[in-house]
Amino acid sequence: MLSNLEQLYQEIILDASKERYGEGLLETPDGESFQVNPTCGDQVTMQVELSEDGEHISEIAWDGHGCSISQASISIMTQMLEGKSLEEADKIFHEFRQMMDARGSEISDETADLLEDASAFQGVSKFPARIKCALLGWMALREATDNALENKENKG
Ligand code: ZN
User: Fold this and answer.
1) How much is the pLDDT for 154?
2) Cα 91 to Cα 16: distance, rounded to the nearest angstrom
3) Distance in Å, CA 67 to ligand 1 centroid
4) Rounded distance, CA 151 to CA 54, Å?
5) The whole model's pTM is what?
């Protein structure tokens, strides 16, 4: 039997995997990254546009396919991180990563508040094979953001 919380988490993941928030590609992204999770077959192209000052994520776009966990994670992350400063996005990324590394242990209220719907992946962290699915989009966004910052520097 699943607990109420686990049921709620499953619903959030299922809904997000159908919603696919932010799906579609940009014409002129500042940065881009392509990531594959070979153990499951998930893949994603992640694109990002930064604000003029390079401190905020102004737009995130992606195209990908794979299991519902990977797709839901990308959708939720995109919705959460769009408009955030790189500093905030980095903090949320670290918190998410820490939760996924914690192998199913309970998360604090503070972490749950910070991660919003991404808390739903807490249960996924119990299954080592699925952790990469949940992290795929986050790793891709991180690389796309680094790529965008490099491109901006090169332009001067
Ligand atoms: Zn997967």
Assistant:
1) 86
2) 22
3) 4
4) 11
5) 0.95
